[in-house]
Amino acid sequence: MGPSPAHNRKPSSSPATKLTTLPLIALIFYDVSGGPFGLEDSVRAGAGALLPLLGLLLFPLLWSLPEALITAELASSLPSNAGYVLWVSSAFGPFLGFQEGFWKWTSGAMDNALYPVLFLDYLRPSLPFFSSGAGRFPTIWILTAALTFLNYRGLHIVGVSAVVLTVFSVSPFIALVALSLPRLRPRRWLTVDLKRVNLRGYFNSMLWNLNYWDKASTLAGEVEDPARSFPKAVFGALVLVVGSYLLPLLAGTGAMEGMKAGEWGDGYFAEVGMNIGGAWLKLWIQAAAAMSNMGLFEAEMSGDSFQLLGMSEIGMLPAFFSSRSKYGTPTISILLSATGVIFLSWMSFQEIIEFLNFLYALGMLLEFAAFIQLRIKRPDLHRPYKVPVGTYGAIAICIPPAILLILVMCLASLRTFIVSGIIMLIGFVLYPAIQLMKNKQWVRFIDPSEPVESYFETTALRPEDVADEASLSLLPEFSPIKQELPEKEPDLETKLG
């Protein structure tokens, strides 16, 4: 059955409270980091302290900063819950936009499957019951259900919780750094055994710990004044992320005598706390790690579910993905994301990281290409925040992270190539199948030619908020926001028509 007239539809509930800058910083922090938990594998893979420390100095410049800059520009220019899906669709059309959405959503579901596992890994030294299958998998499922319910209860609650969790997650490492100062020996930062370096594990660990800056773009429709909030939040989170990684790693590797790189793994920062501060600091770090993984799960699920909602609002997915609960959250999208997490919970930590990094890399290469294409194709697009470079500068800042992404993909195992190839094939088949459903009217889709606010009280820009016609006609055949133009500008309306 096709879409009914807009005036006959009852808008779904939407959040009464928009996200402000501080909760957005916390959500981006948890999209990317959540603290140094999970960074320990980079020490083991790097066979010492030197390579991870160099990585935390170089990767943010070569990778995190370019991605953060691009996210700030495009999220403030195109503030839609479709996020990067809309960026790629605007640059290259809906087919590649759909592939971008499918790859990034699958990567996000894989990423979210890690956090219940990490939660239990930090509790395992004190509660060994969680290391066995009998207690491990039921606990993962219960955790997933509980955190999914919290996500359902409202994005504002998730945002406020993220602020509280950020303070709690970072606080024990402030104590760790302070207590380590008298014991620091800088020569320990130079340790490396080149014969034992695992390049695949090292690059995958570094990339995983510093990626997903673009994830918060799928919440742009829920943010108060995204044009101003996003740049502030992205750069605030960048400082917080780098500091929360670099300082604890300097403390842990520089203060521990006789450090063995092979002992570093998931949950090892708790042992570092025991060595430097005693049992009380170990327990504090374990508690912070557990709570941090809750924040990571919530931030990732919010991004994944609102991405599906955004794709539905621009007509890429059936309309039921846009249905909101009374709390303003996308119910069906949340349930689908939770199902993906449970399905992937049986995989190992390293397997999940490698799979999700490969798919994430594919999506990011498309985003970098879309950033450059929109600079060329739409130089007049209204950009409330613009990376202060021209077209050639835009190309230049994309080259280092693109090389890094290609390197990570080249280091992937044969199994990762096969799994990723199957997922890509599924995406190629899904798009025409969904188009057939739309053309045959088997399932209702939102008509993107009508104003999206007639379906949902979301984030469509008001005409007076738009500075130029480029932001209105960026994606004429697929626009989620079709505006009524003021009568006093007939020439502009004629141009757009």
What does this molecule look like?
It is a single chain. The model is unreliable at 1-16 and 450-497 (pLDDT under 50). Helix content is 63%, strand content 0%. The chain is an all-alpha fold.
Descriptive keywords:
disordered N terminus; 16 helices; 497 residues; mainly alpha
The largest pleated sheet is described as: none
User: What helical percentage do the residues reach?
Assistant: 55-70%
Strand content: under 5%
Shape, principal axes of CA atoms: globular
Give the helix/strand class: mainly alpha
Distance between the termini: 29 Å
Listing every helix as H and every strand as E from the N terminus to the C terminus, the arrangement reads HHHHHHHHHHHHHHHH
Low-pLDDT stretches are: 1-16, 450-497
Strand segment tally: 0
Q: For the residues shown, what is the average pLDDT?
A: 79
Over the alpha carbons, how many angstroms does the gyration radius reach?
23 Å
> Could you state the oligomeric state of the chains shown?
single chain
Number of helices: 16
Protein name: Amino acid/polyamine transporter I protein
Organism: Dioscorea alata (Purple yam)
